[in-house]
């Protein structure tokens, strides 16, 4: 990695994400290859209470040179019954849909989205499979012994369940909130520095509650772009929307003061006009009186 230009925005961003993801969690783990910063390998645990429970799935993420302005490409390597192996996955957070990608999203966001999309229906999307629950359960058991040519056996890549949650849990929950926001708001992100928005997310999630990755995707029809969160996360999003609406109210009240100012300006102008009229009238009266006296004198 030292061969890369450290001033490159993509390199800086990826090195920062690699440092944040260097410790495995119970749900996911991802790191770049030693000789290629733009190719990552990840390991995911199947979401609980689904046919993927107990499964451990490995995959590959390739990132474009202008990341994070463009989305990554995601490839699953472990047979899972939901996505084809060795084929790019078609999701709203992958390279198949650059129009829905947001620069504030990260590799962590993509990992959480994959976990959330696992128990959903493929609906004929590119790279999707519709295996029966029984077949997926069998593949989940077999996945525990799967071995990657680059990483080796994937079973030891994740933290064992029941261990104390990692300190990155707050950032993980905040990534879910970013996914829960409607894509229609993505136009406002273009005016914000992706690195600034990405680096500032951790402070907003200090009081976030723990949420399963499947909560925000369990109501998704197929590969819908909008992702539904749990009640707690939805409440947070609603509070943010209410705050935004209050800002709109304040902004809408600001133009209302301009008519008052214009009325005051008009009244000042009217007063000035009246003074001018009075002065002119006084001058005319003086001229008439002078003319009258001068006429009277000549007579």
TrEMBL record:
Q: Domain UBC core, which positions?
A: 9-159
* Species lineage: Eukaryota, Metazoa, Ecdysozoa, Arthropoda, Chelicerata
Q: Which domain of life is it from?
A: Eukaryota
Pfam family for this entry, one? UQ_con
Q: Does this UniProt record's set of keywords contain rRNA-binding? A: no
Q: Which PANTHER family match?
A: UBIQUITIN-CONJUGATING ENZYME E2 (PTHR24067)
For bias kind Polar residues, which ranges apply? 182-191
**Record field: transmembrane:** 274-293
- Under which name does UniProt file this protein? Ubiquitin-conjugating enzyme E2 J1
Q: Which PROSITE patterns match?
A: UBC_2
Q: Which InterPro entries match?
A: Ub_conjugating_enzyme, UBC, UBQ-conjugating_enzyme/RWD
Show the ranges annotated as biased composition (Low complexity): 200-215
Reply yes or no: does the keyword Transmembrane apply: yes
Q: Which UniProt keywords apply?
A: Membrane, Transmembrane, Transmembrane helix
Q: Where is this region: Disordered?
A: 181-217
């Amino acid at each position: 990695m030292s061969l890369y230009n450290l001033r490159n925005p993509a390199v800086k961003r990826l090195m920062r994400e690699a440092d944040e993801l260097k410790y495995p969690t119970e749900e996911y783990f991802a790191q770049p290859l030693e000789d290629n910063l733009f190719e990552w390998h990840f390991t995911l645990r199947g979401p609980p209470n689904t046919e993927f429970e107990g499964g451990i799935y490995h995959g590959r993420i390739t990132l474009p040179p202008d990341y994070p302005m463009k989305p990554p490409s995601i490839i699953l390597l472990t047979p899972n019954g939901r996505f084809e192996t060795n084929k790019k996955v078609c999701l709203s957070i992958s390279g198949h849909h650059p129009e829905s990608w947001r620069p504030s999203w990260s590799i962590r966001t993509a990992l959480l989205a994959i976990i959330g999309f696992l128990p959903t229906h493929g609906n004929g999307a590119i790279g999707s499979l519709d295996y029966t629950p029984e077949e997926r359960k069998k593949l989940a058991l077999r996945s525990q012994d799967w071995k990657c040519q680059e990483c080796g056996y994937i079973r030891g890549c994740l933290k064992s369940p029941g261990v104390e949650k990692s300190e990155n849990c707050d950032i993980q929950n905040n990534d879910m909130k970013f996914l829960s926001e409607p894509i229609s708001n993505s136009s406002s992100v273009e005016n914000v520095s992706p690195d600034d928005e990405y680096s500032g997310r951790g402070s907003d999630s200090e009081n976030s509650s723990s949420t399963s990755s499947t909560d925000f995707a369990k109501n998704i029809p197929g590969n819908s772009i909008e992702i539904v969160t749990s009640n707690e996360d939805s409440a947070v999003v609603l509070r943010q929307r209410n705050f935004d609406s209050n800002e709109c109210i304040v902004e809408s009240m600001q133009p209302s003061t301009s008519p008052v100012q214009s009325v005051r300006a008009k009244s000042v102008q009217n007063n000035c006009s009246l003074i001018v009229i009075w002065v002119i009238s006084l001058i005319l009266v003086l001229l008439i009186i002078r003319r009258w006296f001068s006429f009277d004198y000549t007579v």
